[in-house]
Amino acid sequence: MRLKRKRLEINEYADGILSGDKIILSRAITLIESNLDTDIELSEKVLELILPHTGNSKRIGITGVPGVGKSTFIEALGILLADQGKQLAVLAVDPSSQRTGGSILGDKTRMEQLSHHPNAYIRPSATGNSLGGVANKTRETMLLCEAAGFNHILIETVGVGQSEIAVKGMVDFFLLLMLAGAGDELQGIKKGIMEMADAIAITKADHDNIQASKRAKAEYQNALHLFPLADSGWQPKVLTCSSVAKTGLDDILHLIETYYDHMEGKLDKLRTQQNISWMHESIGFMLKQNFYGNSEVKTDLPEIEQQVGAGMITPQAAARKLLNL
Amino acid sequence: MRLKRKRLEINEYADGILSGDKIILSRAITLIESNLDTDIELSEKVLELILPHTGNSKRIGITGVPGVGKSTFIEALGILLADQGKQLAVLAVDPSSQRTGGSILGDKTRMEQLSHHPNAYIRPSATGNSLGGVANKTRETMLLCEAAGFNHILIETVGVGQSEIAVKGMVDFFLLLMLAGAGDELQGIKKGIMEMADAIAITKADHDNIQASKRAKAEYQNALHLFPLADSGWQPKVLTCSSVAKTGLDDILHLIETYYDHMEGKLDKLRTQQNISWMHESIGFMLKQNFYGNSEVKTDLPEIEQQVGAGMITPQAAARKLLNL
């Protein structure tokens, strides 16, 4: 049970965050996750104060379909980083999650060792019924974590929908976890996600699975060579690893270092572009939120949607009709 | 020089289109391409009348970077179809085009033989400065062509940007043209486009290029097998062809037939989804058009964009600031 607490003063939040106080950090994140107008106003002021202290982290996105071993992987990689003295925050974007339902990261016990590590901070996904809202909250949470001194931010997402695009738009490096043996498991990955990856890690490359993982690695590496490069010129790599046998994790950390070396002088440009895109997406999101929140639109939408689906009215005319409400 | 003509009556447009009159069809398309409020109103009424007579065509999108031989390919494939007695309309989405500048399809002489074929109708891309606007016009033009009796619609796009996503959202089958010999030429293809393709055709597979094309075919076929399938379960295929030697074109037509066989019973669902998505995208587009067209937004946007890019204000706060104007 969570206690309803009084809000702090703006400066108390900012000072607490900047001094690395995890309790105040958590309370500030709760403020960001709130949808109350007064909280939104307060959180924007807090963000304004801490903003000059953000940006000093490696921002890493991690995705993969359920069953790929994401939590185990993040825990293993996270412990490795934390043991090296890195300050690590683990966040998640999962618009389907409910704090109380067993969502990704929702159940902290799944990363029990990492969650008790003094250098690590784990925060479950914000709740909310729209991806845009949830993703915005995660992005702002990332900024708070950076201001609190975390220099590695891992952002987890579920690999089955649009949230990957949102996460790709807030991280520097995007890692896709996959299983060897292609086939059905992979069909959960949505189109377009593989092409967004800066690296693919074939997980569970242990025991009987080592040979299959090596083959998968070679196949994906060949495939990725055929696909267009990112603007930065980075060629995505494929690695294998085992979170249980603790193999291949060092290689992944090394690859991430290589990536940041490659991005030397290019990272600012990437982040500037991300910020500007994010603003325009936020505008689009807010405009739609206002529009679809309108009670007349809500009433008329189902019928108009049906007519459009049945080809009785053009999508364009239907859109205009709804906008004229 | 185009002559300024008087508008026809709604029924004259509709009757002319339904009787397959190409001159009236062209005038109706001009009406759709107009941005005058009175024309928009008139064109929506025409669309309403012809809508029950649409949907009876194979809707095929074709993309590929400049240099891949798109025009030559479309002309060769188009002649093959038209000679078989198919009624063929060729349209284009190219938001960068100006009717007078040498855009794709803008210069009809590039498809001279096809443009004189009695079974073919070629219409250059609508002009406009926003992709959403241009794509909407192309989509509605497609409906007019269907009502006019064209049973094959080829929609060309340029392979270097967002217009592919718009075209993917209005066609049944999406064909990506590529060259053998990967490397630099391919870098023009944007990320995500390859995964949208229902088929890839390696063009210019003739003379010295035959072996390289065969290798490219095998490589891409292997790569595509690793990638997630579309909801329909269709496995994208790779073929080779030469528009000059006229080889492989029959295979492509045969593949398209196979695709439609595969989509038997699934095509309606795909088109219903496309219609509904298109409506929501149109809503988003119109909302943004209104917003970014606002004079205060126009004045303040550049400075706010700069502040966001420099990390002085969060994208979220900037969006809210602009929306409050």
How would you describe this structure to a colleague?
- The structure is a homodimer.
- With about 325 residues, chain A is an alpha/beta fold.
- Chain A is built from 13 helices and 7 strands.
- Chain A is globular and about 60 Å long.
- At the A-B interface, helix 3, helix 6, helix 8, helix 9 and helix 11 of A face helix 3, helix 6, helix 8, helix 10 and helix 11 of B.
Output the keywords.
7-stranded parallel β-sheet, 13 helices, 7 strands, globular, alpha/beta, about 325 residues, homodimer
Topology of this protein?
Two copies of one chain form a homodimer.
Chain A: H1 10-18, H2 22-33, H3 37-50, E1 58-63, H4 70-83, E2 88-93, H5 112-115, E3 120-122, H6 131-147, E4 152-157, H7 163-168, E5 173-179, H8 193-196, E6 199-203, H9 210-226, E7 237-240, H10 249-262, H11 267-293, H12 295-309, H13 315-323
Parallel strand pairs in A: 1-4, 1-5, 2-3, 2-4, 5-6, 6-7
Helix pairs in contact in A: 1-2, 1-3, 2-6, 12-13
Question: Termini distance of chain A?
Answer: 43 Å
- SSE string of chain A: HHHEHEHEHEHEHEHEHHHH
Main beta sheet of chain A, described?
A: 7 strands, parallel
Task: Give the strand line-up of the largest sheet of chain A.
Answer: 3-2-4-1-5-6-7
Number-wise, the strands of chain A total 7
Multimerization state = homodimer
Helix content of chain A: 40-55%
Strand content of chain A: 5-15%
Shape of chain A: globular
The computed structural class of chain A is: alpha/beta
Query: What is the mean pLDDT of chain A?
Result: 89
Task: Show unreliable segments of chain A.
Answer: 99-103
Q: Provide the gyration radius of chain A in Å.
A: 21 Å
Q: Greatest interface and its residue counts?
A: A-B, 66 and 66 residues
Number of helices of chain A: 13
